[in-house]
Write a structure and sequence with these properties.
Layout: H1 15-21, H2 28-31, E1 37-39, E2 42-43, H3 44-61, H4 66-75, H5 95-110, H6 115-122, H7 136-168
Antiparallel strand pairs: 1-2
Helix pairs in contact: 3-4, 3-7, 4-6, 6-7
This protein binds fe (ii) ion (2 copies).
């Protein structure tokens, strides 16, 4: 059973969503993201799934390209290093500005992505990065990504407090 943060639904039973990402969701490169912690208590795979699912729902509600939004959401943080240990070499930019470029490169190498998906992946950190997104769907992810990050941290803290209460009680 796969669930998105704040949702009780089994994503695998959401046929409309799965139809958009069925080839990606169990791809070995995407599954490899399970090996990396992303936010407190959340793997990069779970974070990518959260962003992908809410991107899909929001873009579908707004009559935008929900399929590309779902697919790009799964690939938007497609990098394979521990971001806390990312060291900035001389002349290199920070992880915040660098990782969308790395994710775009990896997604282009590993999958066949369209121009819209490329824009969503490459510009998901805007306004922390300089380039303005070209499509509405890319603006959606800038909001969804931040929303999911806050929800993931909040859910993890809530779970920890619940466990410690239970332990003390
Ligand atoms: Fe990111
Ligand atoms: Fe992200």
């Amino acid at each position: 059973m796969l669930k998105a943060v704040l949702s009780k639904k089994n994503i695998l039973e959401c046929d409309d969503y799965i139809a958009c990402v069925s080839d990606l969701i169990e791809d070995e490169n995407i599954l490899r993201l399970r090996e990396f912690s992303h936010h407190i208590g959340t793997t990069r795979y779970q974070h990518s799934l959260n962003v992908s699912y809410y991107n899909f729902l929001l873009c579908r509600f707004l009559n935008l390209d929900a399929k590309s939004a779902a697919r790009a959401g799964l690939m938007h943080d497609l990098f394979f290093y521990d971001r806390r240990k990312h060291e900035k070499g001389v002349g290199e930019s920070s992880h915040i500005s660098e990782h969308p470029k790395i994710a775009f490169f990896n997604a282009s190498e590993m999958f066949s992505i369209n121009e819209l998906e490329g824009d969503i992946i490459a510009n998901h950190m805007w306004p922390a990065t300089a380039h303005l997104p070209r499509h509405k769907e890319a603006f959606v992810i800038t909001f969804v990504d931040k929303f999911c990050a806050v929800a993931e941290v909040a859910s993890s803290v809530r779970l920890k407090l619940k466990r410690s209460k239970k332990h003390k009680g």
